[in-house]
Amino acid sequence: MSKLTDFYSYIKNKTVSVVGIGISNTPLIDFLISHGAIVTARDMKTADKLGDLATSLEKKGVRLILGEGYLDDINDELIFRAPGIRPDRPEFLEATARGSKLTSEMELFFELCPCRIFAVTGSDGKTTTTTLTYTFLRREAERTGSGAIVYVGGNIGKPLLPEIDSIRESDFAVVELSSFQLQSMKRSPFAAAITNVTPNHLNWHTGMEEYTKAKENIFLHPGNERLVLNWGCEATREMAELTNADITFFSAKSEPELKNASAAIYDRDGVIVRKTESGEEKILDVADIKLPGRHNVENYMTAIALTWGYVSQETIIETARSFGGVEHRCELVREFEGVKYYNSSIDSSPTRTEAALRAFNQKLIVICGGYDKHIPYDPLAKPLIDCAKSVILTGATAPKIKAALEGSPEYNGQPPIIECESFEGAVETARLTAKPGDIVILSPASASFDRFKNFEERGNYFKQLVNEFGK
Q1: Cβ atoms of residues 404 and 469 within 8 Å
Q2: In 3D, which of 274, 213, 265 has the Cα closest to residue 242?
Q3: How many CB atoms are located within 10 Å of the residue 27 CB?
Q4: H/E element, 63
Q5: Any idea what DSSP says for residue 163?
Q6: What is the CATH number of the domain that holds 391?
Q7: Structural domains in the chain (count)
Q8: Do residue 318 and residue 340 come from a single domain?
């Protein structure tokens, strides 16, 4: 019997709790119901806040436990947690001690998926690298007529578990994985990449050690054969000591050594090359990459290393010359009265904002601030001093960013700091202070949850405000 057949036999008539009714778990509920599970959906939101979704689930026969006591008496045979809910909640620990099995949509997908999985994690660059990896594999399949279907999901796209019946051994799955998803992973993908590790999500993790270990979970378990690591990041470079997988280092800043690695991909005088013990080969001219910024050069290197041997140089070059980027990442919204407005709402940490700012060849009017993830903002001071014409601050982290900038020994009053109470006020202030030839960028260096559901909603609202200028 196949793993899928075994699972379907196992899940039928099992009691299952799905904890967190969100983007990833709503299709999961339908999938479980379709295979005979007895499903309870649990969420901190009340029925009023869930609205039509609660009504729809009840019509499907799903029992709802909502509000503050949503984890009370959880003793189902199988428990699926949403990524944002910690696996060490006391209610989960008590349930597993009584015999419940705790898992997640992505963990089960890894157990059941018949094809090779290519996975990306890291503090920065995950989504662009995941999208590039997917684009490489999809275009290669189209160009060669192989018939392979490439699925993309995880932290982006749609949940993949409901697609499991259609996935063949000859297909590919590309997934972006957050530290929340990796925290309890017990299997690893065929090919894994860690773009970098810098302080992030320290409001959720107990500290930097736990956050780093969650990232390491992408390669520490059975299944991992290929690992791509950032040579320029000490934390990821040292991870090479922890695995027997085939390692490729990448770097846009220096030539990596081959210690613990079979290959290195790096920038030699404007050319991306791949080095092994037997020599070097040219892959791609940096000038062919349509996306701006050194961070995107590294994103290309990571995707190339992940897919090496599965994708031709022709496909890589064709993608580099045509791929225009992912929404909310240095995305040009419009030019109005001679000023260009860019949406980089995805920039939820200082390192992401630095990468975005350094992608441009002039000083920028920067809108920063948002939800506080309890990460340090001192590293943001130098990029703002180097790259900002002015800094407009709003949101919960505005005081921290201001303190970091003003506390820098290099700060001499430039760039000027403007504080705004509202997000709308920050955007309007940027419009009023900008002059023809300027660039305004939303690059918050913070999460969105103080005012928005997610970075997409924040970015879309920014675009709406900008597109209403002059109307």
Answers
A1: no
A2: 213
A3: 16
A4: strand 63-66
A5: G
A6: 3.90.190.20
A7: 3
A8: no
What DSSP string describes 126-169?
A: HHHHHHHHHHHHHHHHHHHT----EEEEESSSS-SGGGTTT--T
For residue 290, the one-letter residue type is K
| SS3 label, residue 453 | coil
Look-up of token digits 């290195």: 264
What strands lie across the sheet with 339-343, from one edge to the other? Answer: 331-336, 339-343, 439-442, 364-368, 388-393, 417-419
> Are 78 and 100 spatial neighbours (Cβ–Cβ below 8 Å)?
yes
- The DSSP bridge pattern shows strands 78-81 and 15-19 to be parallel
DSSP SS3 for 301: helix
Residue 452 lies in a domain: yes
- Domain boundaries, position 29: 13-103
Side chain identity at 151, as an amino acid letter? Answer: Y
pLDDT tens per residue, the chain (471 residues)? Answer: 488 999 999 999 999 999 998 766 788 999 999 999 999 999 999 999 888 889 999 999 999 999 999 999 999 999 999 988 999 999 999 999 999 999 999 999 999 999 999 999 998 888 889 999 999 999 999 999 999 999 999 888 778 998 999 999 999 999 999 998 999 899 999 999 999 998 777 787 888 899 999 999 999 999 999 999 999 999 999 999 999 999 999 998 899 999 899 999 999 999 999 999 999 999 999 999 988 888 899 999 999 999 999 999 999 999 999 887 778 888 889 999 999 999 999 999 998 899 899 888 899 999 999 999 888 999 999 999 999 999 999 999 999 999 999 999 999 999 999 999 999 999 999 999 999 999 999 999 999 988 999 999 999 999 999 999 987
451 token code pair: 């005012």
Within a domain: residue 262? yes
